[in-house]
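Recap from last week: sequence in, structure out.
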Amino acid sequence: MNFKISISAIAMLLMGSAVYAQDIDTTKTRELKEVTIFSDRPKRYNDTLTEVSTRIPTRLLDIPQSIQVIPQEIIKDQKLFTLSEAIKNIAGANTSTPFQDFTMRGFSANSNNYSYNGIRGEVFNYNQQIPLYNVERIESIKGPASALFSNGAPGGIINIITKKPQVNNAYNFEFTYGSWNQFRVMGDATGAITKDKKLLYRVIAGYENAESFRDFYKTNNGQLSAGLTYLFSTKTSLNLEYNYQFNNNNAAYDWGTYVLHDADGKPDYSKTDLSFMSTSPIDKGENNSNALQLDFRHKVNEKVSFTVLGLLSRVTLDRQGHSGYGSHVSANNDSIVGRDYETHLYKNNFNTVTAFATLKANTWKIKHTFLIGGDFVNAQNPKNFYQYSSIAPSLSISNPDYSNDNPSNYTFDFIQDTKANSTIIGTYIQDQIEFSPKFKALLSLRYDTYKTINEPASSLNYTQDVAENNATNLAPRFGLVYQPISNLSFYGSYSQSFNPQFSLNKLEGGPFDPEKGIQYEVGTKGQFLRNKLNVSIALYTIDKTNILVNDPSDTNNIRLIPINGVNSKGAEFTIQGNITSDFSVIANLALNKAVVTKTSSIGKEGDRLPFAPNTISSLWLNYKFSKGVIKGLGIGAGMYYRSNTIGLFSLQDYPIPGYTTIDAALSYKIKKVTLGVNINNLTNALYFVGGVGDAFMYSGAPRNFRASIAVAF
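Predicted structure tokens:
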């Protein structure tokens, strides 16, 4: 795709938005009312306020960066159960594996790019699907977010907001049955404990047991969420939230299926058996996570307030399983060879505290809202025991026989037994400036020091080396906003990201400076139809530097060198909200070109980045009848399109095919009961969310349904 961003194109887009906005709405500027984080949010498709980018409740129009919020109503209407399922609603984002990986603005990310209630931390294991039992809404910052959230990939972060205790008593129960014997139940209760309604509670419990379109793949997961809020006064509140989650299945990792080849040796995706598993029926995977969060807020007066956020989490993984990762299809095109067997015991303790104060002040007629804060983040990895055997039996693809899978006969080629400790201490300052109702600015600066140390936990470890990395980073962010009328903004911004390097071994040439990302972004945002419909356009370019690649001069292929090597540029268009009180819409179009800019061992100039499609578009329409004989009936329909991608730099000529899926929904609400059925992939399209092109492929689900009954009182 020949994709260029020109100054004239930017001007035409922004001028067109301005004309449209003036025809729609010319309301006068209104002062924002104070909002509390514990209040119920309106049931609608659009949100006009967020804290995710500034830590202060701020209008989306006032923030010089692209931000998108997926509220509870969309989660309910589409019957979304996991975060991976919800990502299709975020412009410029796509999943690439069955795990926590996602790609945003062309750059791959994982658990480092998630936050929970505004605080970073490892709350779930990498291989887990993040459940939505207790999720109120999902927020995304497009582009670098290091100014407030520290390290991460430059494509953006996803912030998960959980449901909080409410003053009024409310009880919700939902039962769902779906394809492949999917059984899911969820209960939610909230209200006041004391008569003065100062002590509030919320308890959410969910459980799911399901098979799969994949052979012998079964999973069961559950979550218990308990929250307490104490309202000391109208100015002071404390919220404590505990979450326990487990996920047990007979394969901790689903390594996907395999693609056979045509006569020319090229992948023939039409011959793919989606049910084939390279893992074994005797495998198992057990995940457990415990997380405790604290949110304390105190308002001293109208100008000064402070907040403390805390997180303690403990996650464990116990896995014994066969793997097809790295194996290949045999020459006669009928089996996979190179299977292995792995055991992995993993524990991680994550402790973090974020504290910040806000101060409002005026200098002459210029208004300032200062934010001054700091973070302490400590990740302890006391157990990381991993064994690898390369002699697991091969498997026929058409007629797999797992009877020869016997781990007691395997010898291990590699044993890792390590422990690690990482600490990041960061400080930041931010100023939201209002020069006038039409001109605003956002200035931020963050300084981080971080230290990582990896060392052997026993004599079994393959090396007895101790590796340590100490480094610092300074991350600025600044942006300008122009609002010719109260419901329309034009903005431009500059921001940076950083990610510490975890290749610490001196034999590899380390330690290394962190990866860095630099983004320039311009755009326009509008709120139309009396602020019920959000429309946004964003244009961006991101450069990523200090990428580690193999040193071509090293004959042993061990030493690494950093390069300044990739660029992503693109445009995103979003329409989200309510056209009428009954008719809701969310529509996204993202165009992106992510390529290598400097030839090296990572790839040659012009090569595409893995899992970065050039085009992603999605649409969801929902109509709920509020009058007449069919009052309570809801109808929804949507589509998702993604162009082709590549799975590895070395497979530029074998792209993973693009695809289109269509979904539909029907619901009926009568008094306190809601019945619903959702059909996903209505046309039964064959598609893959990721893979490596000619080996293992992560297949999407065939046509499936979810039928539910929900009661609220």
